[in-house]
Design brief:
Elements (H helix, E strand, L loop, with lengths): L2 E3 L12 E5 L3 H12 L3 E5 L7 H6 L3 E3 L2 H6 L3 E4 L3 H12 L8 E4 L3 H4 L10 E7 L3 H9 L4 E9 L5 H11 L2 E8 L2 H16 L2 H15 L4 H29 L3 H14 L2 H15 L2 H11 L3 H11 L2 H9 L8
Parallel strand pairs: 2-3, 2-5, 3-4, 5-6, 6-7, 8-9
Antiparallel strand pairs: 1-9, 7-8
Protein backbone atom coordinates (compact mmCIF):
# COMPACT_ATOMS: atom_id res chain seq x y z
CA UNK A 1 0.00 0.00 0.00
CA UNK A 2 1.17 3.51 -0.76
CA UNK A 3 1.89 5.83 2.15
CA UNK A 4 0.51 9.34 2.04
CA UNK A 5 2.56 11.74 4.12
CA UNK A 6 1.83 15.18 5.50
CA UNK A 7 5.36 16.14 6.52
CA UNK A 8 6.11 19.34 8.36
CA UNK A 9 9.29 20.16 6.46
CA UNK A 10 9.69 23.90 5.92
CA UNK A 11 10.89 25.12 2.55
CA UNK A 12 13.39 27.21 4.51
CA UNK A 13 15.67 24.17 4.87
CA UNK A 14 16.57 24.76 1.21
CA UNK A 15 17.55 28.41 1.69
CA UNK A 16 21.30 27.85 1.68
CA UNK A 17 21.25 25.15 -0.99
CA UNK A 18 22.37 25.66 -4.57
CA UNK A 19 19.71 24.02 -6.76
CA UNK A 20 20.86 23.16 -10.28
CA UNK A 21 18.20 22.15 -12.80
CA UNK A 22 19.34 20.39 -15.95
CA UNK A 23 16.73 21.14 -18.61
CA UNK A 24 14.03 23.76 -19.17
CA UNK A 25 11.12 21.84 -20.62
CA UNK A 26 7.60 21.83 -19.24
CA UNK A 27 8.59 20.54 -15.80
CA UNK A 28 12.03 22.16 -15.63
CA UNK A 29 10.63 25.61 -16.38
CA UNK A 30 7.89 25.30 -13.76
CA UNK A 31 10.34 24.04 -11.13
CA UNK A 32 12.85 26.80 -11.80
CA UNK A 33 10.32 29.64 -11.74
CA UNK A 34 8.49 28.36 -8.67
CA UNK A 35 11.73 27.79 -6.75
CA UNK A 36 12.99 31.25 -7.61
CA UNK A 37 9.77 32.81 -6.38
CA UNK A 38 10.26 30.94 -3.11
CA UNK A 39 13.49 32.92 -2.74
CA UNK A 40 15.75 29.94 -3.43
CA UNK A 41 19.04 29.84 -5.36
CA UNK A 42 18.44 28.28 -8.78
CA UNK A 43 20.65 27.69 -11.81
CA UNK A 44 19.31 26.29 -15.09
CA UNK A 45 21.72 24.36 -17.31
CA UNK A 46 21.14 24.20 -21.07
CA UNK A 47 23.25 23.45 -24.13
CA UNK A 48 24.47 26.61 -25.81
CA UNK A 49 22.58 25.45 -28.91
CA UNK A 50 19.32 24.82 -27.05
CA UNK A 51 16.26 26.50 -28.60
CA UNK A 52 15.07 27.17 -25.04
CA UNK A 53 18.14 29.22 -24.12
CA UNK A 54 16.75 32.63 -25.10
CA UNK A 55 13.48 32.02 -23.30
CA UNK A 56 15.23 30.77 -20.16
CA UNK A 57 17.41 33.87 -20.04
CA UNK A 58 14.39 36.11 -20.55
CA UNK A 59 12.99 34.88 -17.22
CA UNK A 60 16.01 36.40 -15.40
CA UNK A 61 16.90 33.01 -13.92
CA UNK A 62 20.62 32.25 -13.81
CA UNK A 63 21.37 30.17 -16.91
CA UNK A 64 24.62 28.49 -17.88
CA UNK A 65 25.89 26.12 -20.55
CA UNK A 66 28.87 25.00 -18.46
CA UNK A 67 27.57 21.61 -17.33
CA UNK A 68 30.65 20.61 -15.35
CA UNK A 69 30.95 23.88 -13.42
CA UNK A 70 27.24 23.75 -12.59
CA UNK A 71 27.48 20.14 -11.42
CA UNK A 72 30.42 20.92 -9.15
CA UNK A 73 28.47 23.56 -7.21
CA UNK A 74 25.19 21.66 -6.94
CA UNK A 75 23.83 20.86 -3.51
CA UNK A 76 20.71 19.61 -5.27
CA UNK A 77 20.86 18.45 -8.90
CA UNK A 78 17.55 17.99 -10.71
CA UNK A 79 17.33 15.92 -13.89
CA UNK A 80 14.52 17.68 -15.76
CA UNK A 81 15.51 16.13 -19.07
CA UNK A 82 13.66 13.47 -21.08
CA UNK A 83 14.28 9.91 -19.90
CA UNK A 84 16.31 9.05 -22.98
CA UNK A 85 18.77 11.91 -22.36
CA UNK A 86 19.55 11.22 -18.72
CA UNK A 87 22.19 8.50 -19.04
CA UNK A 88 24.37 10.62 -21.30
CA UNK A 89 24.02 13.64 -19.01
CA UNK A 90 24.85 11.65 -15.88
CA UNK A 91 27.78 9.76 -17.39
CA UNK A 92 29.37 12.83 -19.00
CA UNK A 93 28.80 15.56 -16.45
CA UNK A 94 27.41 14.35 -13.13
CA UNK A 95 29.03 11.05 -12.24
CA UNK A 96 32.50 12.53 -11.71
CA UNK A 97 31.59 16.09 -10.78
CA UNK A 98 28.68 16.17 -8.34
CA UNK A 99 29.91 16.91 -4.81
CA UNK A 100 29.90 14.13 -2.26
CA UNK A 101 26.55 13.98 -0.42
CA UNK A 102 24.75 16.08 -3.03
CA UNK A 103 21.07 15.27 -3.57
CA UNK A 104 20.19 13.96 -7.03
CA UNK A 105 16.49 14.37 -7.84
CA UNK A 106 14.73 12.54 -10.67
CA UNK A 107 11.26 13.45 -11.96
CA UNK A 108 10.65 9.88 -13.13
CA UNK A 109 11.80 6.49 -11.91
CA UNK A 110 12.60 5.30 -15.45
CA UNK A 111 16.38 5.78 -15.66
CA UNK A 112 17.24 4.44 -12.22
CA UNK A 113 14.78 1.57 -12.08
CA UNK A 114 15.65 0.21 -15.53
CA UNK A 115 19.37 0.56 -14.87
CA UNK A 116 20.32 3.26 -17.36
CA UNK A 117 21.63 5.49 -14.56
CA UNK A 118 23.37 4.05 -11.50
CA UNK A 119 23.94 6.92 -9.06
CA UNK A 120 27.16 7.04 -7.07
CA UNK A 121 26.83 5.46 -3.65
CA UNK A 122 27.89 8.68 -1.86
CA UNK A 123 24.90 10.64 -3.21
CA UNK A 124 21.43 11.09 -1.79
CA UNK A 125 18.91 10.13 -4.49
CA UNK A 126 15.23 11.00 -4.54
CA UNK A 127 12.19 11.18 -6.77
CA UNK A 128 9.70 14.04 -7.07
CA UNK A 129 7.09 13.33 -9.73
CA UNK A 130 4.25 15.90 -9.92
CA UNK A 131 1.14 14.21 -11.30
CA UNK A 132 0.31 17.13 -13.57
CA UNK A 133 2.07 18.70 -16.58
CA UNK A 134 4.51 21.49 -15.85
CA UNK A 135 2.16 24.14 -17.22
CA UNK A 136 -0.50 23.15 -14.69
CA UNK A 137 2.05 22.98 -11.88
CA UNK A 138 3.00 26.58 -12.65
CA UNK A 139 -0.61 27.75 -12.99
CA UNK A 140 -1.62 26.23 -9.67
CA UNK A 141 1.45 27.69 -7.95
CA UNK A 142 0.53 31.18 -9.15
CA UNK A 143 -2.96 30.66 -7.70
CA UNK A 144 -1.51 29.61 -4.37
CA UNK A 145 -2.67 26.04 -4.87
CA UNK A 146 -0.77 22.76 -4.72
CA UNK A 147 -0.80 19.62 -6.85
CA UNK A 148 -0.36 15.93 -5.98
CA UNK A 149 3.00 14.22 -6.46
CA UNK A 150 4.78 10.93 -5.95
CA UNK A 151 7.97 11.04 -3.89
CA UNK A 152 10.60 8.43 -3.16
CA UNK A 153 13.95 8.04 -1.45
CA UNK A 154 16.30 5.73 -3.35
CA UNK A 155 19.48 6.48 -1.39
CA UNK A 156 19.81 8.32 1.92
CA UNK A 157 23.51 8.64 2.64
CA UNK A 158 23.28 11.77 4.77
CA UNK A 159 20.16 10.88 6.73
CA UNK A 160 18.59 14.09 5.42
CA UNK A 161 17.38 12.96 2.00
CA UNK A 162 13.75 12.59 3.03
CA UNK A 163 13.57 16.06 4.56
CA UNK A 164 15.10 17.72 1.51
CA UNK A 165 13.04 15.74 -1.01
CA UNK A 166 9.79 16.65 0.75
CA UNK A 167 10.90 20.28 1.11
CA UNK A 168 11.77 20.40 -2.60
CA UNK A 169 8.39 18.94 -3.54
CA UNK A 170 6.60 21.58 -1.51
CA UNK A 171 8.84 24.37 -2.82
CA UNK A 172 7.94 23.65 -6.45
CA UNK A 173 4.22 23.73 -5.63
CA UNK A 174 3.23 20.22 -4.61
CA UNK A 175 0.56 19.99 -1.92
CA UNK A 176 2.12 18.72 1.31
CA UNK A 177 -1.11 16.82 2.07
CA UNK A 178 -0.96 15.02 -1.28
CA UNK A 179 2.60 13.71 -1.36
CA UNK A 180 2.43 9.96 -1.87
CA UNK A 181 5.43 7.69 -1.31
CA UNK A 182 6.14 5.10 -3.98
CA UNK A 183 9.29 3.26 -5.02
CA UNK A 184 11.18 4.16 -8.19
CA UNK A 185 10.07 0.77 -9.55
CA UNK A 186 6.39 1.35 -8.87
CA UNK A 187 6.43 4.90 -10.24
CA UNK A 188 8.20 3.89 -13.44
CA UNK A 189 6.14 0.79 -14.19
CA UNK A 190 2.70 2.14 -13.30
CA UNK A 191 3.34 5.40 -15.14
CA UNK A 192 4.39 3.59 -18.31
CA UNK A 193 1.42 1.25 -18.05
CA UNK A 194 -1.01 4.13 -17.57
CA UNK A 195 0.44 5.96 -20.57
CA UNK A 196 0.44 2.93 -22.87
CA UNK A 197 -2.75 1.12 -21.89
CA UNK A 198 -4.95 4.07 -20.95
CA UNK A 199 -4.16 7.77 -21.22
CA UNK A 200 -1.86 7.95 -24.27
CA UNK A 201 -2.57 4.58 -25.88
CA UNK A 202 -5.83 2.87 -25.02
CA UNK A 203 -8.05 5.94 -24.74
CA UNK A 204 -6.97 7.65 -27.99
CA UNK A 205 -7.27 4.32 -29.82
CA UNK A 206 -10.77 3.81 -28.38
CA UNK A 207 -11.80 7.33 -29.42
CA UNK A 208 -10.50 6.83 -32.97
CA UNK A 209 -12.21 3.45 -33.25
CA UNK A 210 -15.53 4.90 -32.11
CA UNK A 211 -15.23 7.79 -34.54
CA UNK A 212 -14.44 5.45 -37.43
CA UNK A 213 -17.39 3.16 -36.63
CA UNK A 214 -19.83 6.09 -36.59
CA UNK A 215 -18.52 7.64 -39.81
CA UNK A 216 -18.50 4.26 -41.58
CA UNK A 217 -22.15 3.86 -40.57
CA UNK A 218 -23.00 7.11 -42.35
CA UNK A 219 -23.11 9.64 -39.50
CA UNK A 220 -21.71 13.16 -40.04
CA UNK A 221 -18.02 13.38 -39.18
CA UNK A 222 -18.42 16.51 -37.07
CA UNK A 223 -21.13 14.84 -35.00
CA UNK A 224 -18.98 11.73 -34.58
CA UNK A 225 -16.11 13.95 -33.45
CA UNK A 226 -18.25 15.75 -30.89
CA UNK A 227 -19.63 12.52 -29.44
CA UNK A 228 -16.32 10.66 -29.30
CA UNK A 229 -13.87 13.44 -28.46
CA UNK A 230 -15.60 16.36 -26.78
CA UNK A 231 -17.77 14.22 -24.52
CA UNK A 232 -14.64 12.48 -23.25
CA UNK A 233 -13.48 15.70 -21.56
CA UNK A 234 -16.81 16.15 -19.79
CA UNK A 235 -16.81 12.60 -18.50
CA UNK A 236 -13.16 12.81 -17.44
CA UNK A 237 -13.95 15.88 -15.33
CA UNK A 238 -16.83 14.06 -13.62
CA UNK A 239 -14.66 10.99 -13.08
CA UNK A 240 -11.86 13.00 -11.49
CA UNK A 241 -14.20 14.92 -9.22
CA UNK A 242 -16.58 12.17 -8.14
CA UNK A 243 -15.05 8.78 -8.95
CA UNK A 244 -16.55 6.07 -11.13
CA UNK A 245 -19.68 5.48 -9.04
CA UNK A 246 -20.22 9.21 -8.60
CA UNK A 247 -19.84 9.79 -12.32
CA UNK A 248 -22.56 7.26 -13.12
CA UNK A 249 -24.84 8.85 -10.53
CA UNK A 250 -24.48 12.26 -12.19
CA UNK A 251 -25.37 11.34 -15.77
CA UNK A 252 -28.71 10.37 -17.26
CA UNK A 253 -30.12 6.99 -16.33
CA UNK A 254 -30.12 6.07 -20.01
CA UNK A 255 -26.40 6.84 -20.26
CA UNK A 256 -25.65 5.04 -17.00
CA UNK A 257 -27.54 1.88 -17.96
CA UNK A 258 -26.07 1.82 -21.45
CA UNK A 259 -22.55 2.38 -20.19
CA UNK A 260 -22.73 -0.17 -17.39
CA UNK A 261 -24.21 -2.90 -19.59
CA UNK A 262 -22.25 -2.27 -22.80
CA UNK A 263 -18.92 -1.08 -21.44
CA UNK A 264 -17.83 -4.63 -20.51
CA UNK A 265 -18.59 -5.70 -24.08
CA UNK A 266 -15.96 -3.25 -25.31
CA UNK A 267 -13.38 -3.78 -22.57
CA UNK A 268 -13.62 -7.56 -22.38
CA UNK A 269 -11.25 -10.30 -21.25
CA UNK A 270 -9.31 -10.06 -24.51
CA UNK A 271 -8.54 -6.39 -23.81
CA UNK A 272 -7.41 -7.21 -20.27
CA UNK A 273 -5.15 -9.95 -21.62
CA UNK A 274 -3.55 -7.43 -23.97
CA UNK A 275 -3.09 -5.03 -21.06
CA UNK A 276 -1.30 -7.76 -19.12
CA UNK A 277 1.03 -8.30 -22.08
CA UNK A 278 1.80 -4.58 -22.14
CA UNK A 279 2.54 -4.65 -18.41
CA UNK A 280 4.81 -7.68 -18.80
CA UNK A 281 6.84 -5.94 -21.52
CA UNK A 282 7.24 -2.99 -19.16
CA UNK A 283 8.22 -5.12 -16.17
CA UNK A 284 10.81 -7.19 -18.04
CA UNK A 285 12.46 -4.05 -19.47
CA UNK A 286 11.55 -4.88 -23.07
CA UNK A 287 9.81 -1.56 -23.60
CA UNK A 288 12.58 0.47 -21.95
CA UNK A 289 15.21 -1.18 -24.14
CA UNK A 290 13.04 -0.71 -27.23
CA UNK A 291 12.60 3.00 -26.50
CA UNK A 292 16.27 3.67 -25.84
CA UNK A 293 17.16 1.81 -29.06
CA UNK A 294 14.57 3.87 -30.94
CA UNK A 295 16.18 7.05 -29.63
CA UNK A 296 19.65 5.85 -30.61
CA UNK A 297 18.39 5.55 -34.19
CA UNK A 298 16.94 9.07 -34.18
CA UNK A 299 13.34 8.07 -33.36
CA UNK A 300 12.34 7.09 -36.93
CA UNK A 301 9.36 4.99 -35.85
CA UNK A 302 8.03 7.73 -33.57
CA UNK A 303 8.36 10.33 -36.31
CA UNK A 304 6.53 8.06 -38.76
CA UNK A 305 3.74 7.41 -36.24
CA UNK A 306 3.32 11.16 -35.64
CA UNK A 307 2.95 11.68 -39.39
CA UNK A 308 0.42 8.85 -39.65
CA UNK A 309 -1.62 10.43 -36.85
CA UNK A 310 -1.71 13.76 -38.71
CA UNK A 311 -3.30 11.97 -41.67
CA UNK A 312 -6.12 10.34 -39.68
CA UNK A 313 -9.67 11.16 -40.75
CA UNK A 314 -10.45 12.37 -37.23
CA UNK A 315 -7.64 14.94 -37.59
CA UNK A 316 -9.14 16.16 -40.86
CA UNK A 317 -12.43 16.68 -39.05
CA UNK A 318 -10.67 18.58 -36.28
CA UNK A 319 -9.02 20.93 -38.76
CA UNK A 320 -12.41 21.59 -40.32
CA UNK A 321 -13.92 22.54 -36.96
CA UNK A 322 -11.15 24.74 -35.60
CA UNK A 323 -8.45 27.11 -36.85
CA UNK A 324 -5.05 25.45 -37.38
CA UNK A 325 -3.60 24.21 -34.11
CA UNK A 326 0.01 25.08 -33.34
CA UNK A 327 1.81 21.80 -32.74
CA UNK A 328 4.62 21.74 -30.19
CA UNK A 329 6.88 19.08 -31.63
Amino acid sequence: MLDVHKPDVPVAVLKNKKIVIFGFGSQGRAHALNLREQGLSVIVVLRDTSPKLIHARSTKIDVTSDFIAAAKQADIAVLALPDECQKDLYDRFLKDHLPKHALLIFLSGFSVHFGFVTPRTDLDVGLVAPKVPGVMLREQFLKGLGVPALVSIHQDVTGQARAFVFAYAQAIGCDSSALTSATFKDEAETNLFSEQAITCGGLPALICAGYEVLVAAGYPSDLAYAECVKNTKRMADLLEQHGIAGMYERISRTAAYGGLTRGPQVIDQHVKDNMRKILTHIQNKDFANEWIHECALGQPNLNQLHEQNRQLAIETTLRGLHPPIKRNM
